[in-house]
Design a protein that fits this description.
The chain is mainly α. The protein has two domains: 1-205 and 414-442, Orthogonal Bundle (Preprotein translocase SecY subunit); 210-408, Orthogonal Bundle (Preprotein translocase SecY subunit). The protein contains 17 helices and five strands. It has helices spanning 2-10, 12-31, 41-48, 55-64, 80-92, 97-104, 108-139, 152-179, 184-205, 212-235, 271-280, 282-287, 294-304, 309-334, 336-342, 354-392, 411-434, and strands at 237-244, 246-249, 252-255, 258-264, 345-346. A three-stranded antiparallel beta sheet has the order 4-1-5, sandwiched between helices. A hairpin with a 2-residue loop joins strand 2 (246-249) and strand 3. Helix 11 packs across helix 14.
């Protein structure tokens, strides 16, 4: 392993790519500490205090943005408006015939990528406005940016600067893809998560309501077990055999090859967690616009503080639902049944065309059940840890008052970390093998 890393560093082009990637990530972290004009730092600190309404949600946003939310930086939105725009277009492609045709044309994917950039701009505007309004509702009578909404120039400058920050972050990601080691957008999120781990770990260690040894042991066990399970699930696949028909031209025979379609157990990554996290915050935001009452207060407490059986059960069900939904959309977009038929391929025992597509869909849904349950459990792990702590340390610990062992690196954060590391290792492995070096995998 060490020899492989030394070999990588000896290759000038690979070394330059690593240095460029590191420099770009450093620039991103610098931008994460440039605050939006007019922001009230004390209001942000108040929101981030353990036990504060909505602190759990804000800490998750802060983790995934690399600390940009804690400073309410110009890149507080991170690259999520771009990711949201990409997801929306993926969902629209099978619904709009013109987009479906465009995707199949030469260069059509590049055009859809350009549409994604265009759509990311209004999405960044909406997310910036919505994020500020959510924070204001959580603060009650205090504004996170005094004068926002009433001062026209201030409002416009804040929205434009946050939108520009998002597109700047996306541009940095594209630079990593083109000039660095690749997988740029994921590397941007990766660096943000890693940058916040020391801060969250120090806050967990400073929690006096739970014994330090228990917190550290639980953190290490959860992290190691989660990494092993994530790798096992992410790399797990069902191989569907495919046979290509033989063709005879003159005295030569072509085709007749056997191959397979690799169907991933979790083909959608952490996207269902993003969807579920976005939807699960809506009840608390909606009730904040209505007069206070017992029902509204219970909803605000459950979904604003991210605590209680109702919240965690809803989060689990939403994650499972979006896993099935998005995997179905992905399989529909790939149109494997018709693609196999056009290329002379078929699954043994299954008629080509629609029956092949139906068979692939059934297989996908069966194996997606495992992936959906896996993502659902990852999503509610912080709630399970809170429940365990409240049982073991009754009278000392109150759920939601501190960062627990499962929130130092969230489940979605771990999925991103493991996925980016695996993909980066594969790319470096390819660079080594291409130059006749021994790679990481022996």
């Amino acid at each position: 392993m060490l020899q492989a890393f030394r070999n990588i560093w000896r290759l000038p082009d690979v070394r330059n790519k690593l240095l460029i990637t590191g420099l770009i990530l450093l620039v991103y972290q610098f931008a994460a500490h440039v605050p939006v004009v007019g922001v009230d730092g004390n209001a942000i600190e108040a929101l981030l205090q353990p036990g504060q309404e909505g602190a759990g949600l804000i800490n998750v946003l802060n983790l995934l943005s690399g600390g940009a939310v804690r400073n309410f930086s110009v890149i507080a939105n991170g690259v999520y408006p771009y990711i949201t725009a990409s997801i929306i277009l993926q969902l629209l492609v099978p619904l709009i015939p013109r987009l479906a045709e465009l995707q199949k044309e030469p260069g059509g994917r590049d055009v859809i990528t350009r549409y994604t950039y265009y759509l990311a701009i209004p999405m960044a505007f909406l997310q910036a406005f919505g994020q500020i309004q959510i924070f204001n509702s959580l603060l009650g009578g205090t504004q996170i940016i005094p004068g926002f909404g009433s001062d026209f120039l201030l409002t416009i400058s804040v929205l434009f600067s946050m939108t520009a920050g998002t597109m700047f972050a996306v541009w940095l990601g594209e630079l990593i893809t083109e000039q660095g080691i690749g997988n740029g957008i994921s590397m941007i999120i990766f660096s943000g998560i890693v940058a916040q781990v020391p801060t969250n770990l120090s806050q967990m260690i400073g929690d006096t309501s739970i014994p330090l040894l228990w917190n550290l042991a639980l953190f290490i066990i959860l992290t190691l077990v989660s990494i092993v399970v994530i790798i096992y699930i992410q790399e797990g696949e069902r191989r569907i055999p495919v046979q290509y028909g033989k063709r005879v031209r003159g005295s030569k025979q072509y085709g007749g090859a056997r191959t397979y379609i690799p169907m991933k157990v979790n083909p959608v990554g952490m996207i269902p967690l993003i969807f579920a996290q976005a939807i699960i915050t809506l009840p608390a935001v909606i009730v904040s616009f209505f007069p206070e009452g017992d029902f509204g207060n219970s909803i605000r407490t459950a979904f604003g503080n991210q605590q209680g059986l109702l919240y965690w059960l809803s989060f689990f069900l939403l994650t499972v639902f979006f896993t099935f939904f998005y995997s179905d959309v992905m399989i529909g977009n790939q149109d494997l049944g018709n693609n196999l038929q056009r290329n002379g391929g078929f699954i043994p025992g299954i008629r080509p065309g629609k029956q092949t597509q139906d068979f692939i869909t059934r297989v996908t849904r069966r194996i997606t059940l495992v992936g959906a349950l896996f993502l659902g459990i990852i999503a509610v792990t912080p709630g399970i840890v809170d429940f365990l702590n409240s049982v073991l340390f009754a009278g000392q610990f109150t759920p939601g008052t501190s960062i627990n062992a499962a929130n130092v690196i969230t489940g979605s954060g771990l999925i991103i970390l493991v996925g980016v590391v695996i993909e980066t290792m594969r790319q470096l492995e390819a660079q080594l093998v291409m130059r006749n070096y021994r790679g990481f995998l022996k």
